[in-house]
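Please, structure for the following, as tokens.
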Amino acid sequence: MPTYYDFEVHLAECEPRMWRRFLLPSGASFEDLHNAIQDACGWTHSHLFEFRDAGRNSIAVSEHVEEAEVPPADEVPLSSYFKSKRKCRYRYDFGDCWNHVVELKGKVELPEKFRRRLLDGLRSFPPEDCGGPWGYEECCYAATVSEAELKKMDALGREEVEERREWLGDWHPEAFDLQAAKKEFDR
């Protein structure tokens, strides 16, 4: 029977907590984990990334990060790290610096075979290139500020919020449609 890693990933440094939980085959690599995080969280695969252990030592990096002593993520099997560890860090976009906590909840055996499966999640992850945790707070404010509060702002403040709203489109911090996400994620 196939064995799967049960992972939960949440974004550090942002409140309230947003997270995703998914399954990956036990033979997967850190590149597979990266791709799963990107797709589960709505990121766009647009930036460099790295995985680190609790001591801040690099485990694996994206292929374009030139650190000779750290192997590319597609060459590092998850089993080489998660045989003895339960958590690692995933940093995505070295400019915005999105730090994720990746926790192995356990291993499960299932009769069916699949590449990955999204199990659950809560809240929308920040839009790509919004400026890190500080920019995320600005996005949350712009998406949720009431019209009454908007009218009380000076012209400059109102213009900034309206521009951010236009840039955000239909993004909302509380929106997460598990069934729609599963259609895109599950393979």
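The longest strand covers residues 98-109. The mean pLDDT is 94.
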